[in-house]
Amino acid sequence: MQIQIESTNILTFFGGVPVRLWNGVTADGTPCKVFIHRLAVGNDQDSTAFDRELSEQFPPSENRHVPLSRILSPTEEKL
Question: What is the pLDDT of residues 23-42, one digit of tens each?
Answer without folding.
Answer: 999 999 999 999 999 888 88
